[in-house]
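Lecture 7, part 2: worked example. A protein chain together with heme C.
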Amino acid sequence: MERQTLIKLIPTLFIVSIAAVFIYNLVSHGRIEHPGKSVYKNQCAQCHGDDGEGIKVLVPPMADADFLKNNFDSIPCWLKNGLNHPIVVNGKTYDQPMYPPGVDEIQIANVMNYMSREFLHSEMQVNSIWVKDRLKVCK
Ligand code: HEC
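Predicted complex, written out as structure tokens:
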């Protein structure tokens, strides 16, 4: 690239980086809704609860759930195929089937990122390419 062109690009790069920081701040302070939030509210919360608290002995909690943290990588397969065997979450056994909630790869990635931040207070983040890869190895 010519020196002249590079110099012309500087203001553009400057504006783009300011915009990026601005958008990042809006999202991280919760002023723009996380894209996984609507997936969670519409397709998971009726069972798992708005705050991931679950339903008594029927639906396991997500909030600070050891099982969720330890098996995070398995979530795509559970959402695709459902989950239907006894599991132990925070010391309690749950054994009701979860039928596939009907979410696509992008929704899975978004909802996982939302759950990671909201319920596990974790920095773990995934994307739809990773989800697609995980879906290839579902049993
Ligand atoms: C109709 C009720 C229902 C809906 C809707 C539902 N689940 Fe579940 N979910 C369950 C039940 C019941 C289990 C326990 C399954 C078992 O014991 O085998 C479960 C288990 C899980 C688990 C593993 C246990 C845990 O708490 O860590 C995860 C993760 C999970 N669901 C995520 C989701 C996500 C994400 C959605 C929305 C995209 C969703 N579920 C929608 C009922 C539901």
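The pocket of heme C is lined by residues 43-44, 46-48, 59-62, 65, 67-68, 75, 78-79, 83-85, 87, 89, 94-96, 98, 101, 103, 111 (CB under 6 Å). The beta strands are 87-89, 92-94. Keep this in mind for problem set question 3.
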